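Need tokens for this chain, all 197 residues.
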Amino acid sequence: MDIGASEKLELVDHFCYLGDMLSVDGDADAAVEARIRTGWNKFRQLVPLLTNKDVSLIMRGRLYSSVRSSMLHGSETWPVRKEMRWHIQRAEMRMVRWMCGIKLKDRFPSKELRERLGIDDIALVLQQNRLRLYGHVLRKDDDWVKKCMEYEVEGPRPRGIMIIIIKRFVYRRKVVTSEDQRGPGERLSKRSVKYVN
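Here are the structure tokens for all 197 residues:
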């Protein structure tokens, strides 16, 4: 692509920007694969500690949080599909089984292994991160994302179904105390947010 002044840009399908993989079609497949690779690299650096029998399983779970955070970096903005969530969960469970010294053929439930390490399901953490970002966007005063979400298009067609689905999901899963119940400018604590199943 010629941009003038004898400068040419190469057209590519994927490229790395600030450590995140971006693709032309807007999918996050390349980003998820890159984050899983980063998580495995971090896990391999910590293998001597994460598989050490002298370290308790709870402490290994706490150490594992650094691996998890490297896997989920930037995941708040990913358009997550079921396949992506499955790939992330699969990679995490392989790491969890390695930490616990249990093979797949031993047929231990994943939930039990996560409880031993004291960690939550990575899909739940991914969902909480996305909801946290959504809350930040909603609390922001003059933000273009909020204006786009609240924009009403005149015409015979009803409001976009994705916005309605997102709002229903957030209101069903999360009940937040009102602004007057907490001090002005006070952030929400874990006690002031109640999650509903």
